[in-house]
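Entry type: protein chain
Record version: 2
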Amino acid sequence: SAESMDLPKIADVVVVGGGVMGASTAYHLAIKGCADVVLLERNSLFGQEATGKCAGGIRYQFATEINVRLSLISLPMLDRFEEELGQAIDLRRCGYLFLLTNEQDVAAFRANVALQHRLGVMTEWLTGDEVRARLLLLRSDDVLAATWHPRDGLADPNGVVQGYISGARRLGAKCLAEVEVTGLRVEGGRVRAVQTRQGEIATPVVVNAAGPWAGQVGAMAGVEGFDQRVDHGWELVHFEAAMARMPLLAEVGIGSRWAGLYEVSPDAHPILGKVPEVEGFYCIAGFSGHGFMHGPVCGLLLAEEILDGQAHTLDISSLRLSRFREGKPIVEYNVV
């Protein structure tokens, strides 16, 4: 068939998954001079799964140092995105406001803000009265305090994926849709090839960027340590909470709904970097609902890890998969 002719027989790197992580990785590999990259997406369009279904939130406000540091590099990459890649991403800096209604949260967020300030993220602390004075549409009688960062906001996930895919293609990478990976050939403890319905691609390096399906791709490589759950009770609870907080929403109702898979690693932090059990197998997954905003920097870091032997823009050793086996998960109070 015509399709099988399009599938290369050999590649330096094969990226499995055409969401934001895969697209960013392919682009950053190509711009660093590794043009013989093949990205495979099983759907007919790139970025339609978890990436396309995410709300596109971007923020500096996180509760662990590694996440704040990822944002400090990634969000400025989004600022430069249109200029660098020639693709509009509808960046809106509308700010994120976290409302705190119990003392436990107040204490935790005070610690978060201290951490953020130490890293140069100047989140504002608001008292309950300041919130009530500023936001009249909000039912805020129970609000004790809040945190606000005006440079948090939104961007269009689809634009980011398309920008990276086109950028990677301009640099010589092959980004192919409608190619489903069915297996990985691993021999002598290292990756040898990626198997698809259209044939096999011989490659020494495979990047697992399959998002909520990362566990399945990991299993193909014989790697344990992936866990993925989808929470179906989520919508109802969150919509009721939103209506209680902003009564105006009750009149709006739900205009449309979609199920977005929320991939969760055991400590709700990303799994990024080389996987020690299988040489040539790399992982960029487990972002637990806030991967989109970290897609730019994580693709860059993984490209460094693959081509330079180790990421150097940021130390990502705390994000390696083996942390779960070694009993060193990252502890975060509040993942939103």
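Comment: The chain has a mean pLDDT of 89.
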